[in-house]
Design a protein that fits this description.
The N and C termini lie far apart (118 Å). The chain has one helix and twelve strands, in the order αββββββββββββ. It is of the alpha+beta class. Strands 2-3-6-7-5-4 form a six-stranded antiparallel β-barrel. Strand 6 and strand 7 form a beta hairpin.
Amino acid sequence: MIKLKNNILSIVTIFIVTMLFSCESDIQKVNKLSKTSFVPTGEADSLNLKYTDSGKIKSILVSPKMLDYSSIKSPFTEFPKGIHLTLYDANGKTTTIESNYAISYKKTNIIDLQGDVTITSQDGKKLETSQLYFDQKNEWFFTENQFKLTDTNGGFFEGPGVDFSKDFKIFNMQKSSGLVNSIEN
């Protein structure tokens, strides 16, 4: 009787241990299935996108690679190989923006430009920095990083932190130093 009891106890113990291990495996499978993979909804190579409004071109975006993450909670579009963007004002004047990397956040309409960011206006002003944000709604650029602004006369301003309008007409610097050259007529 004792031997039978020990055999039953052994069988029950083996059964319980087996059940516990199989449950752990199932829990791991459920956890693995519940994790969503972070993959783009769309992908484009050699992008050349023209944005128009009322028959006029407002901007042209050129990029070697675009990844679209529009199906996640905070959607964004990533340009891992950089961008070349040309903005047109109402008079057809251009502002050109280049960066090694860019990410555009759809909910906030903010573009984060990173790595050798250069903005050049049609009249020859050039701003260089390592990171710059663009508020698309207000058409406003800003950064807390070091920047350098040069003009066609050889003058320049540099320092940390700047914000300005897309046409460079309004320009606010936190701290700056530089050289201003003027040409007398």
